[in-house]
């Protein structure tokens, strides 16, 4: 075994944990906070609640919400200038993947200088970032836990992946109360996204005992509690989904992902498809493709999904994949690629682009563009 | 469920991970490092190796090794003065529990002022600490992972527990190569200590899904790999024990401990007994005492220890405890209290002292001094 790296933020988890925001900021040495969110969240009331918490703690803050979905390089630079102009010392964000990734970019440029585009790729950040406190408003992106930030380079029109352990926030405050207003569709998309994080992290070439325990726990929780949460929307069951998303993020942030995500990124970039709608279609087929290289690992997933082992690891693995397919069908989501891709002729281009995705590096089995075409044709 | 808190350092794990020390320090903004160890480790050669790594990275350092076992308050204050005099900015330590706890105390006093004694108890630290990088030389104390520091108040002659999430180091570098020279006795004591951390954390009143996965993984690894590591001392098996110690520490740092440790601290303080020799005697009896309050949790441990479930959770739990007793016997360690306590008349005093131990707060079943006397008499 080589050298493993495991990094997760300090986590406050549970209903009402939002109230710890001020105390956390204070403990990180905050005097003036740079608070990032997006306009869509302002009407939820959560932003005002954070303002109150900060005021009560006697903390000053600068609020920045000039963030679009798929945050852009110039939005980062504008934020970093503002951060420095006001002499801020801690970055706080409440939101989904976009404000969270933007907040990481702002913390990066404010402390390390240059443009956010200078840091594209893995491990290119040299200096420490200001302390960061993240409050996720969804249960799946995992940006509050992970070492990834995705920012759009507007000139080249590409999504840049910036990967560094210094991008792991100091503190993640996961308050499942923020989930209560989500629609059935969003709950399913988020849970399925987390499930795909967990499955791909589990079979990853760089998985470790420290990540595997979290990936299996996430799978167990989602399989068991998503149907219950959809049925009764009880806080107890929503909380299990939040826990699953957090566990899956602890796994994938440290073990990375695989072929399903390489294809999903490529499809998502071209078709603007929601991430969570792609996985039920691709994931079982990708698991079958990977099976020969990680039978025991997929059997572990099968054991969790089935609740028991069959006569051999292969049998458990195969039955587990079938069970997952049935699970996706029972959720009423699209399970064929033709349901979400309007034109089959784009597939070769999508598969070619996916070969450049860094998630492929940790997939247990190598895959060419032709292999990916076969996978896509298999689920057309 | 209330609000859970989960905090672990960034972890570099594996053979040769020591070489990342310089890079880690640089990434945390180090210019001049305060490096804490103890004289006993200097002849191991590891200290010189760290000096070389720091020199190569162009980092300055101040070395401080005036640390005794059970580090003392004045050693902390002397270290903190030296830290400030030299304008250090990062604390680094290589060693067992004593230099690690001392390093935490020095980082605390250097940044928060006053005396280390001012911070006794839970959550009394207000200001952030300088970045800390810890390299454990044993596989069990867990100080490199945990939010605890134990420092001796020389005037009152008591061991102070200082507990705060700000005491979690930024980075733990766990290099199993540091274990190769350990004796059979030390390997057993360390593994049994980690096993007791894992068992007590697992049944703790404040355990969470985030800690439970690590406690069960630690138990699984120790039961399986300690006998193999003792037999062939292969690096692969030593590495499993390092992983188990790290997993157990991730669990107990966040879930705390229980009755076995309350008694072990009290016995250890009075008799200077090695921590790891006490657990095989007390732990199974404490598990039986706790059984009525956490049958399902002990059954989960039983399932891991036995490799299967029996007809009921209670049957699995009981068989698991018996299996652990047999396991301890097979290691050839003391399994009766009379083997390590010279005089039975000290037991009432030991049990009385144990009632003040903060570990009792998270034990699943309440216990009076009389309850503890019954436990001690049962294993006399």
User: Largest interface, with Cβ-Cβ < 8 Å?
Assistant: A-B, 42 and 42 residues
- The helix/strand class of chain A is alpha/beta
Termini Cα gap of chain A: 39 Å
Mean pLDDT of chain A: 93
- Tell me the fraction of residues in β-strands of chain A, as a range: 5-15%
Taking all Cα atoms into account, the compactness measure Rg of chain A is 20 Å
Q: Number of folding domains of chain A?
A: 2
Main beta sheet of chain A, described? Answer: 6 strands, parallel
Uncertain ranges of chain A: none
Q: How many alpha or pi helices of chain A?
A: 14
What spatial order of strands do you see in the largest sheet of chain A? 2-10-7-5-3-4
Regarding CATH, which class of the largest domain in chain A?
Mainly Alpha
Shape of chain A: globular
Report the helical percentage of chain A: 40-55%
CATH superfamily of the largest domain in chain A, please? Answer: Dehydroquinate synthase-like - alpha domain
What is the number of E strands of chain A?
A: 10
* Topology-level CATH name of the largest domain in chain A: Dehydroquinate synthase-like, alpha domain
Regarding quaternary structure, what we see is homodimer
The CATH architecture classification of the largest domain in chain A is Up-down Bundle
Question: Describe it for me?
Answer:
The structure is a homodimer of 380-residue chains. With 380 residues, chain A is of the alpha/beta class. Chain A has 2 domains: 10-178, Rossmann fold (3-Layer(aba) Sandwich); 182-378, Dehydroquinate synthase-like - alpha domain (Dehydroquinate synthase-like, alpha domain, Up-down Bundle), CATH 1.20.1090.10. Chain A has helices at residues 21-27, 39-42, 46-56, 73-85, 97-112, 184-203, 209-232, 235-255, 259-271, 275-290, 295-306, 313-330, 347-354, 369-378, and strands at residues 4-6, 10-13, 32-36, 60-64, 90-95, 121-122, 132-136, 148-153, 158-163, 171-174. In chain A, the strands form 2 sheets. In chain A, strands 2-10-7-5-3-4 form a 6-stranded parallel sheet, with helices on both faces. A 3-stranded mixed sheet of chain A has the order 6-9-8. In chain A, a hairpin with a 4-residue loop joins strand 8 and strand 9. Chain A starts with a strand and ends with a helix. The model of chain A has no long low-confidence stretch (mean pLDDT 93). Chain A binds chain B through residues 1-8, 10-17, 20, 26-29, 126-128, 131, 165-166, 168, 208-210, 213-214, 216-217, 221, 236, 239, 243, 246-247, 250, and chain B through 1-8, 10-17, 20, 26-29, 126-128, 131, 165-166, 168, 208-210, 213-214, 216-217, 221, 236, 239, 243, 246-247, 250. Strand 2 (10-13) of chain A pairs antiparallel with strand 1 (4-6) of chain B.
């Amino acid at each position: 075994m080589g050298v493993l790296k495991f990094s997760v933020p300090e986590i406050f988890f549970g209903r009402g944990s939002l109230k710890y925001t001020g105390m956390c900021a204070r403990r990180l040495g905050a005097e003036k906070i740079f608070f990032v969110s997006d306009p869509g969240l302002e009407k939820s009331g959560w932003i005002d609640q954070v303002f109150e918490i900060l005021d009560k703690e006697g903390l000053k803050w600068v609020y920045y919400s000039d963030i679009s979905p798929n945050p852009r390089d110039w939005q980062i630079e504008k934020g970093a200038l503002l951060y420095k102009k006001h002499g801020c010392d801690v970055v706080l964000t409440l939101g989904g993947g976009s404000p969270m990734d933007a907040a990481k970019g702002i913390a990066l440029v404010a402390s390390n200088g240059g443009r956010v585009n200078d840091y594209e790729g893995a491990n290119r950040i040299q200096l420490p970032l200001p302390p960061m406190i993240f409050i996720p408003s969804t249960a799946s992106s995992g940006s509050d836990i992970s070492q990834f930030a995705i920012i759009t380079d507007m000139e080249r029109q590409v999504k840049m992946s910036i990967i560094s352990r210094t991008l792991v926030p100091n503190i993640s405050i996961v308050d499942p109360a923020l989930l209560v207003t989500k629609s059935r569709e969003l709950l399913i998309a988020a849970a399925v996204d987390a499930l795909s994080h967990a499955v791909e992290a589990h079979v990853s070439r760089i998985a470790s005992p420290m990540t595997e325990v979290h990936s299996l726990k996430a799978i167990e929780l989602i399989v068991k509690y998503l149907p219950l949460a959809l049925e009764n929307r009880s806080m107890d069951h929503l909380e299990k989904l939040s826990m699953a998303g957090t566990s899956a993020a602890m796994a994938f942030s440290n073990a990375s992902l695989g072929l399903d995500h390489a294809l999903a990124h490529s499809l998502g970039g071209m078709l603007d498809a929601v991430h969570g709608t792609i996985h039920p279609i691709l994931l079982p087929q990708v698991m079958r493709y990977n099976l020969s290289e990680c039978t025991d690992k997929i059997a572990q997933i099968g054991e969790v999904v089935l609740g028991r082992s069959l006569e051999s690891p292969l049998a458990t693995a195969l039955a587990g994949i079938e069970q997952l397919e049935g699970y996706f069908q029972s959720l009423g989501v699209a399970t064929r690629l033709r349901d979400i891709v309007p034109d089959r002729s784009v597939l070769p281009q999508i598969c070619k682009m996916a070969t450049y995705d860094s998630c492929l590096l940790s997939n247990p089995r190598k895959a060419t563009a032709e292999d990916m075409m076969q996978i896509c044709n298999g689920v057309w």
